[in-house]
Amino acid sequence: MRSATHARGAACALVVALAATACGGGGSGGGGGESGVLSSSWGDPQNPLEPANTNEVQGGKVLDMIFRGLKKYDPKTGKAQDMLAQKIDTSDSQNFTITLKDGWTFSNGEKVTAKSFVDAWNYGASLKNNQKNAYFFGYIQGYDKVHPAAGSQSADTLSGLKVVDDKTFTVALNQKFSSFPDTLGYAAFAPLPQSFFTDHAGWLAQPVGDGPYRIESYTKGSQMSLKKWDGYPGADKAQNGGVTLKVYTDSDTAYTDLIAGNLDLVDDVPASQLKNVKSDLGDRYINTPAGIIQTLAFPYYDSAWNKSGAEKVRTGLSMAINRKQITDTIFQNTRTPATDWTSPVLGVDGGFKEGLCGSACDYDPAQAKKLIQEGGGLPGGQLKITYNADTGSHRMWVDAVCNSINNALGNDKACVGNPVGTFADFRNQIGQHKMTGPFRAGWQMDYPLIQNFLQPLYYTNASSNDGKWSNKDFDKLVDQANAQTDTAKAVSTFQQAEEVVRDNMAAIPLWYQNGSAGYSERLSNVTLNPFSVPVYNEIKVS
Fold this sequence. Notes:
17 helices, alpha+beta, 20 strands, 4-stranded mixed sheet
């Protein structure tokens, strides 16, 4: 989902209202002095915590704790499993009947019904609500009326959604989409209580979901307090009393607090500490494969990057990057050089194809220099790679990438880093199309399908297509792949679309990222799911 990883005027409502009731930072203990409560490093979300308006990792962590949807992704395998869905039936991969399980409620006591889903999806799709994840509803019939590409919407609800009764609703898509049920564990498809619509400002001030935790308080720039919801009806109940998410603008500081006993969990061990982490934490250090790829994206709304020949410049830059040296030196077995645009966690059957990038991802400085010259040289004469500076490891690898490019071009000023103070500021600048050169683009999968690594990022006007790349051949192949009812044929067609990405070097794949975490002696049963997020509800606190 999410820019690792998807503002409205109401953006401050959550911050202001919850700040009035926010708890303090707690004592010196890792759990803030509260029995059974663990503390974990975090960063402020970019947007209010509306499910259809959150497409970045930090907000996504919270949504995964306070919401449950029709499907849930297995914390070990990533496989989509029924959660609120009793069954999802289809005879043609285009028309679906969804039946809900009994007994589900929101934390305010309101029943979760078919209407809870239909109303939420209609809200998320509506152009007037300006939700960043609206695109995920694009395959439902009537989306072109609710969210037209130009002009005002001519309908308020999706014609493809129908409530049958409290436990049943139907979904009609505008084309076959055989994997549609597997996408429904993504937070954008979560249900919403009626209080979201009747008192929207109040809901933003105190979000109400149907997951194992409820939000108690939030002070922007400080922390969010989540407590176990004792009335949660699901089988995956919280095994702890709650989670205090503490905001850090520097990952090294978070790690230092963990070692000092002032924090229980760090879910992103900084590169600068990797040489020490095993001796510091022993078996309390986790390093496991995750569905994350890091890339360099480009601003195609800038004509300098979208002109004829620019693809040679981008391909040349890719070949100027010594991925193996950078991952070996800086990341020490937590990153693997990328050779395609997906992730090894998908497996071969799921769409990962090692080497699909071909020679364009091989380190070849002589060919790199030749291609960049043939493409007209670096736009403006210098490359500035923009990144958020609140994670120390980004500066390290950006400097290393620039050093590699500079060496290939024989010019120590050809490439420089362009830091932006915080992740939120960085994402806001990207959303406002202010990038003038390549920028850091991490992608954490929303669900374990090859479609999710390609369509949201590279399809024309897709939700996370931040650089606004557009290619008709790619779009056509994605549409064909989604319509395939045979999984193997769908994967093969998606890989053809991925070859279009390669031939145009729409984005430069850098490396696949492992999930890494470290935790205190107070905790046990700590794991990361295939999305690299701690499985908070399973953690136990001594």
